[in-house]
Every structure is written in structure tokens, then in C-alpha cells.
Amino acid sequence: MVHPRSRLQSLSPRQQQVLWATVRHYVTTAEPVGSKSLVAEYDLQASPATVRNAMGRLEKTGLLYQPHTSAGRVPSDSGYRIYVDCLMQPADLIAQQVKHLFDRQLEWNGRSLEAVLRGAAQILSNLSGYITLVTFPQAHTATLRHIQLVQVDGGQILMVIVLDGYGSQSLLIPFDGATTANQAPEAIDQQLQVLSNFLNSQLRGRPFGTVTQIDWNDLDQMFSGYIATLRQALGDLSRRQQSPTAMQMMISGLADVLRQPEFSESNQVQAVIRLLEAEQQQLWPLMFETQDPSQPGKRVRIWIGAENPLEPMQSCALVSSTYQKDEVAAGSIAMVGPTRMMYENAVALVEAAADYFSTVLSDQESAESPSLHGSSLLDSI
User: Fold this and answer.
1) Per-residue pLDDT tens for 101-129?
2) What's phi and psi for 168, nearest 5 deg?
3) CA distances (Å), 227 to each of 203, 217, 220, 222, 230, in order?
């Protein structure tokens, strides 16, 4: 694949200018454009004939095309790619705007994490006009606060793990009857409290992803009958939370973007809706693959049209970035819209939101926000 900057270098300054203007016109109007309109709208300091020649050259190189023989031209996916990588300018104003709205409207105190993420998704979709996707933080990046083992009916033990802003995880554990045979419930409760204390001494303050890394030799021999079952339970929890299907995602702005002319065909709309509502796990690789090999060092990944490996997304663009906790990717923020997207705005919004949540999650240890640690979060899970 030819690198976009190599393709850009093959274009004259006039052709670059015309490509930029064509993208801007089509993003704004959804209408093909001719040379006369470009000259009038963008003051290109050239005659319509000169601009027409430049458009013809861009069409031959696959950066523009004519949707109809009598129509003007529109950008191709390759044309958008060169625009995104080489021609667009940062939208600093909209980045400042979203940071201001987050600071003013996303009140953490007394609110569940779900409510905060939902509010962020709504702000982003309202500002952009595109579908906004915000994933919950992945549980394996959370810090473990407390573990409790509780005896329940039917010879089972409930293991509850409380995390630092991601809610709680729980698992019912069926125990071998021989372990607790002929023991009074009070005696079992006492043993479970000792085991809970042991697990807390081993794991409190550590990332949830390390719950299987326990030195069982430190446990008194009288409790050895519990070890195999507890080890398997912790392994099951760890694997479950690292699975993409365990993640939750906020979606906002779906109705608005599907009114765009690109989604006029019902089959196309249904495929996108099904992907977003019922097959979300297929999106995880796109949303968490933020390093573009052609753009090293950039924090935002942009998939345009046919670049998307998922067929329903090949009429769309997806702009995504991860937010982090202590320099580890915790969750993802993305925008989905037609390929006729205002990319500079989408990039600015996604970057600003990722920075905001990275700061909040990394600072929560010292902030001790009630919304991150209090019952309101646990009640929402």
C-alpha cells in the first residue's frame, strides 16, 4: 500500500488545494461539486478551467470520482485518507469546548460510573452529530479494594471482589462437600473470614488482572482444602473479565446519524444497527487498535470506508482512541459516522475525551471520589 504522504508528494500544490476544497465542500453539503463552485466558495485564485484540470487529475489517481456522469466530483476513500493524514488542521477550539463541558456537566460526586460515561457519550454525540461509543474501563486494569467470601445456601460460597471505580465482580463457587463436612455454619463462616483476610493481604491494592498471582504457601495448612477451588475461581474471574464480551459500552447519537443520506438504504441501516446493538464484540479490535502503522506516534486511529474489515462499517468512518489508567489502556472512545465526516472535529473530540478520562482514572487514588468508591457505583452494576 502506498503511504498517503508519498501520494501527496505526487500532487502539485494546486491539486492538493483542490482536493482539500472538494473534501470540505462535500462534508458540508453532501453534494458533488464542480470547478465553478469550488472557485466561488474557496477563492482558489484560479480559473474554473484550471481547477477542472486539477480535478480530472485527482480523478485519474483515484482520489475523486463522479457518482453520476453529469455530476460533479466527490472524494473517494483514498481522497479522505490523504486529507486526514496530510491536509486537515487540528480543531483546537472544539477540543477546548468539550473539556469545558465535561468539567461543568460531568459531576462525579454521588453518580455512578455508568451515569458519567453515558453523560460523556451524549455530550460528544451532541457536539459532533455522530454516533459516540464509550466503553466501560476494562476490569483487569482496576485496582482491587476488597475480597469477601460469603456462605450461601446449597453448599456454595459467594466470592465478591470490590474494585476501585469499576464496580464489583462476583462468582458462585461450588465447594467439595468434604471440605466443610460435619462443620457448623458458624465454623465455616469463621474459616471464610480467615480466607478473605488472606486474599486481601495478598491482593489488596493490586491490579485485578493479577488476581491469580497468589503465594498459597503463606496460607495455613488447615485451609489447604480450599486452595484448589479458590485458585480455579480466581482464574475463571480473570478470564471472564479479559474477554471482550464482558465489556459494556455506552452508545449515543444513533438516531441522528442514521438520518444522513448515506444511510438511506434500509438494509444498510439495519446492518449498522445490528452491529452496534447486538454484535458489539466485533468492534473491540477496531476500537482498541489505535496504532496506525502508517502514522506512528498518533493516539487516534481512523478507519475510512473500505479500510474497515467489518462489512457493515464499509460505508462508515470510525475514529477511536483509548483512555488510560496509569499508562495502561483501560477503555475506548470512538465515533462512527459516514465517510463524509468532519474528521478534524471527530479527532479533536475523541482526543479530548480520552485525555479527560485518563486524567480522572489515574488521579482517583488520591481523589477518593465518592462516585468511584461509594455504594452508588455498586448499586449500578
Assistant:
1) 999 998 776 667 778 888 999 999 999 99
2) -135, 155
3) 15, 10, 11, 11, 5
| Residue whose C-alpha is closest to residue 19's, from 61, 49, 69 | 61
Distance of CA 221 to the CA centre of its chain: 45
d(CA 11, CA 16): 6
- Sheet of 249-252: strands edge to edge? 249-252, 131-135, 328-338, 316-325, 301-304
DSSP state of 84: I
Q: 2 vs 9, 19, 83, 223, 294, CA distance in Å?
A: 11, 18, 15, 63, 10
CB burial of residue 79 (10 Å; 0-12, 13-18, 19+): buried
Cell triple for residue 182? Answer: 460435619
Report the alpha-carbon distance of residue 259 to residue 261 in Å, rounded: 6
User: Residue 341: which of 267, 253, 270 has the closest Cα?
Assistant: 253
pLDDT of amino acid 352: 94
Instruction: Give Cα 295 distance to the centre of its chain.
Output: 19
Q: What percent of the chain has pLDDT over 90?
A: 43
